[in-house]
Amino acid sequence: QVQVVESGGGLVQPGGSVKLSCAASGIIFRFTNMGWYRRAPGKQRELVATISSGGSTTRYADSVKGRFTISRDNAKNTVYLQMNSLEFDDTAVYYCHPEGLNYWGQGTQVTVSS
Hints:
Blueprint: E1 3-7, E2 10-12, E3 18-25, E4 34-39, E5 46-51, E6 58-60, E7 68-73, E8 78-83, E9 92-98, E10 108-112
Parallel strand pairs: 2-10
Antiparallel strand pairs: 1-3, 3-8, 4-5, 4-9, 5-6, 7-8, 9-10
């Protein structure tokens, strides 16, 4: 069965950095496009970034361009999200998602606060 486990969230100060990880199983990871999404308090879930199966193509929400970087390691079935220059509005639960599959993990909370 499909499973994704997100980790790496926590409390970080504005301007700080954090790196999220997502370990996937139950899918042919190297053939699966992956995405990071987030849901802020009181808002709908939104796309943050996606990466193609081979890692050559990435796409970002305008709000995170230049600050976040998505990457993947197909040997480890893991996708990452490096988050720099964090802002208060980045506070959310972050979810890793295998594109095209109706499956969502538990997410990992990122809180930006001074």
